[in-house]
Write a structure and sequence with these properties.
It is found in: Cytoplasm. By secondary structure, the protein is of the alpha/beta class. Helices cover about 40% and strands about 15% of the residues.
Length: about 325
């Protein structure tokens, strides 16, 4: 047996960070992994978090955490101690650095090749900031920690032909979006989307539809010139490089079946242009993927849901979908 064949036969190693301890991350992790053996027979999972907290939250949702960890064959625990005891729904800045430690351990493991992919449960940005650490979000932090000059946030729904929406800009005030767009940045963003759809999602010829920035895609310059001066020239450049990217389309009419059924991804210009549509269509089953990284990272499409934490009413569907996608992406990377 060749070394490549041996590698292909090994279980995929997936890390899961349990996120904000006061939120739903720990219990959703337990719920999702309760079916690990049946759902993901080709994968092994390492859960990063406080072992006592995980057992407590698992018990609250009817999962026998000790049995799940038995023999370490499918699910393993990488214990990281809380900074302070955590109560469901009650934020504590003393746990801000604990949350970052989970993320750092997962990133380091993925960069070292210990993990084939990481899946992140939601965190609370304010807790990290209150702990004295400047933090904008998972996406930006992953880019910084992996020394990646440009990453792309993409949210995706599940289904036979999933809706995927990527963003040209992420967590910016609306007044700063236009200045953040350039021909160069859009070209690089489209290259990243095309590359990752090919190599991580198994799409041999991705088709990307691109929105305009302004109402009616600028109305031939009467409602803004970004489409003429920035977006169209960027599309021409990537088309010349063999990337099938089309537009710019008015965002208010692009999200229709007759357009989307011919698309593998939509690139929206800013956060609240594309994501409200996607979340309306897929919330609870959607996922967040960071494209352009040297590692694979997926996450849920929702926040910490502090009001649901510890109640057993939170739905693990999005986390299950994020794990599904991480496993699939890791398999595609391994064979391709």
């Amino acid at each position: 047996m060749t070394s490549a064949a041996q590698s292909a036969s090994l279980p995929l190693q997936i890390a899961i960070t349990t996120g904000e301890p006061a939120g739903v991350g720990p219990e959703l992790t337990a719920q999702a992994l309760a079916g690990a053996a049946a759902h993901w027979p080709a994968a092994q999972f390492t859960v990063l978090g406080d072992a006592v907290l995980l057992a407590e939250r698992a018990r609250a949702v009817g999962v026998d955490w000790a049995a799940l960890l038995a023999h370490g064959r499918r699910v393993r625990m990488q214990h990281r101690a809380l900074g302070a005891p955590s109560l469901a729904g009650k934020l504590d800045a003393a746990n801000g650095r604990y949350v970052l430690d989970l993320l750092d351990s997962a990133i380091d493991g993925a960069l070292a090749g210990t993990f084939d992919a990481i899946v992140t449960a939601p965190l609370q940005k304010s807790t990290i900031n209150d702990a004295g650490v400047p933090f904008t979000g998972h996406t930006e932090y992953l880019a910084e920690r992996t020394h990646t000059p440009r990453v792309v946030m993409m949210l995706a729904g599940t289904g036979k032909r999933p809706l995927r929406v990527a963003l040209a800009t992420t967590h910016l005030p609306l007044k700063d979006v236009s200045a953040a767009l350039s021909i160069e940045s859009l070209v690089e963003t489209l290259r990243i989307i095309d590359h990752d759809l090919r190599h991580h999602f198994g799409l041999p010829a991705p088709r990307i539809l691109v929105t305009g920035l302004n109402p009616h895609a600028g109305e031939n310059g009467y409602l803004g010139r970004e489409e003429i001066d920035v977006i169209t020239p960027a599309l021409k450049l990537v088309n010349d490089q063999g990337i099938d990217a089309r537009g710019p389309y008015p965002a208010d009419t692009l999200f229709q079946p007759r357009y989307l059924e011919q698309a593998d991804c939509v690139l929206a210009m800013f956060h609240d242009q594309g994501l409200p549509v996607l979340k309306y269509a897929t919330f609870g089953e959607g996922i967040n993927v960071t494209l352009g990284l040297p590692i694979i990272r997926t996450s849920v499409d929702h926040g910490t849901a502090l009001d649901l934490a510890g109640t057993g009413r939170a739905d693990a569907g999005s986390l299950i979908a994020a794990i599904d996608t991480a496993v699939s992406m890791a398999q595609n990377r391994r064979v391709g």
